[in-house]
Structures are given as C-alpha cells and as structure tokens.
Fold:
Amino acid sequence: MEKPIENYWRLRLRDLKETLEGNNFEVFIAEDPEAAKKLVLEEIIPKLGPETISWGGSMTFTNSGLYRALQDRSGIKVIDTFEKTISPDEMMDRRRKALLADLFITGTNAVTETGKLVNLDMIGNRVAAITFGPKHVIILLGRNKIVPDLEDAMLRVKDYAAPTNAMRLDKKTPCVKTSYCEECKSPDRICNHWTITEKSFPKGRIKVVLINENLGI
Ligand code: SF4
Structure:
C-alpha cells in the first residue's frame, strides 16, 4: 500500500466523524489549518450569520490564522478575549460577555474515540461557553488530541497538556519545573474545572472541525 500513514488517518478521522455525528455534533474534516480556516470563514460563519463572535484559549485557533482573520472581519462584533493590552478587569468582563456571543470558537484538550470532548480549564470561561451560552460553538481539533477513552483523555490532559500549558503561560507551578503534575495548591494552578461533553445539545450546536495534522498542545 502506498501512503499508509495518510490512509490510517483518513480512516481514523472518517470513523471519528461518524461517531461524533452519532453524538449530535456537526462534524467537518480539514486537511490542514489553512483548509480549516477557509472552511470556518467561507462555509460555517456565512451559514450561521453571527452578529457577535468570541473565543477561548486555543493554540490551534490562533495558529490557524483565524484569530487575525476574524479581527479584521467587517460586519461582526468581536469580543476579543486574547487582547494583551487590556486590564485584568476588562479581560474578565469580556470573558463574561463572550458567554452571550452568537459564535464561540475554541479547541479541546482531548477527544475520545467514543466521541466525547474532554477539557480542563483554569478560569472556566472556555468550558462554560462550550457547555452553555453562545448560540453556536466551533471546536478546532488536531488529530493528536484523539485518545481511546476517558481514562486516556484525563491522563493526556493532566500528564501532558496541563504541564505544557503551564509552561507556555509562564505559571509558577511545580509542573513547570518537573514536567509532572504534582496536584499543586499554587495560586497559579491552571487545573480547576473539568468537563466531559458527551453529546451536543441542542443537536448541531457544537461543530467540530477535525484537522488532519498534529496541532496545539
Ligand atoms: S494541578 Fe498544578 S502541578 Fe498539576 S498540572 Fe495543574 S498546574 Fe501543574
């Protein structure tokens, strides 16, 4: 067989799409971040017609170029929760307002082969928006986030994603020094709110874009 790795991922993503659709998610497959960006900008957003849009922490979202593209998009009010120059109070206010946006875009820490999204948040604004508030949610998801089951998902998050995110964010937590989760009591602890999204309710509210590359943390 030629291109076995490409074939493997084509089959895996096809199966995961079907499984997620069985859990009431609307699912798309994109070959790379550029294709995901085009899909969101040219198909999903025009179909949804949001008046307000916001987002929550996701390297996949920023690295896809969508963050910059949406900042410049006319006709949509943007609630920018990534802007670096605003005060902590203003940032918290925007995070609250983002919960009432028409469209919220983010990533997920893991997805199981049984079609469940698993996330762990510091503040909770991202998992809150995935759960309830925004009319529509888009989850951008690199293939490296796929794990067999919930146990592996939680292991992935605590053993890998949380320490590396703490490093990325320059947190003063033990995992930044050791790479292992120490179940810290640090004020900088980023592991506070778990969510498991078993199904999209209402059906189709959460759209998942499966991207055929390793992306994010
Ligand atoms: S609980 Fe603390 S030590 Fe463990 S991963 Fe989270 S921030 Fe790091």
